[in-house]
Amino acid sequence: MGKNLHGGAGDSRARTWWSACKQDLRERERAAYLAKRRGRLKNAGFTILASDCNGTMMYHDLGLPFLSPTINLTIGMNDFVKMLENLPWYMEQELTELSVEGRTFPTGLLGDIQVNFVHYQTFEESARKWEERKKRINWDNLFVVGSAKGACTYETIQRFDRLPYQHKVIFTHIEYPEFSSAYRLKGFEKQGALGTTTNYTNRFLKRRYLESFDYVSFLNGEGF
C-alpha cells in the first residue's frame, strides 16, 4: 500500500509539473503569436465600432489605445444597426441611465438605443468612459464589427450589409454568401448560434474563436 501511495504522489507531482510546463509553453507561444500580428499591422489611429467585446479584444491584443466608445459593452444588433444608420446624430445624444430590473451591470440609453455596460461597476463610470472615448473617434478611419446574436435576424444582417461603411464585418455561425460583409467564425457550427467569440478555444494553442478571422488584414483595409 505504501508503494502505491508513494507512486501516486510521484505521478501527481509529475502531472503538476507537466501541466505547468504546458501552460508556460502556451503563454510563450501566445506572446510570439501576438507579436507577429502586431508586426503585420500597417494601419494606425483607427476606430472600431463594435456591437460587443470583439472590438475591445482587437485593440487589447494589438496593444493599442481605445479610440472608440464601444469598449467593454454590448449593443443588441438591431439597435447597433439603427445607431450606425444615423451615427453622427446618435454620437451627439446624451447618455442617460436606464433602470433594468435584475441587471447586475449598468445600462444606458442613447436616444432610443440601449447600451449594456457589462464590464463596468457604475453608470457614472460607464458614462464618463463613453464620453471620453467618443471624442477619440477617427471619422476618416472607421471599422464596423457586428455579431449575429440574440434578436439578430436575417433582415438585420441585410440592413447591416447595406450600411454605407467601406470596412465592415458581421460575424455569423453559418455561411451567408449573399452578404459580402458576413463572415462565419469557426467553432459554432453545432451550437445553432454564435457563442462568446472572445473566449479561447479548447485547443492546445491559445487562440480566441475570434481569431479564425484575420482581423489584422481587415484593419489594414485589405478586406477578408
Give short descriptive properties of this protein.
three-stranded antiparallel beta sheet; 224 residues; four-stranded parallel beta sheet; 7 helices; alpha/beta; 2 domains
Report a brief summary of the structure.
By secondary structure, the protein is α/β, with parallel strands linked by helices. The protein contains 7 helices and 7 strands.
Fold and architecture overview:
The structure is a single chain. It is built from 7 helices and 7 strands. Strand 5, helix 6 and strand 6 (168-172) form a beta-alpha-beta unit. Strands 1-5-6-7 form a 4-stranded parallel sheet, sandwiched between helices. Helices cover 38% and strands 13% of the residues. It has 224 residues and is an alpha/beta fold. The protein folds into 2 domains: 1-40; 43-219, no CATH class.
Identify low-pLDDT runs.
Answer: none
Structural class designation: alpha/beta
- Helix content range: 25-40%
Spell out the helices and strands N to C: HEHHHEEEHEHEEH
Strand order of the largest sheet: 1-5-6-7
The total tally of domains equals 2
Distance between the termini: 61 Å
Mean pLDDT across all amino acids: 93
Gyration radius (Cα, Å) is 21 Å
Shape: globular
What is the beta-strand fraction?
A: 5-15%
Oligomer state equals single chain
- Strands, count: 7
* Tally of alpha and pi helices: 7
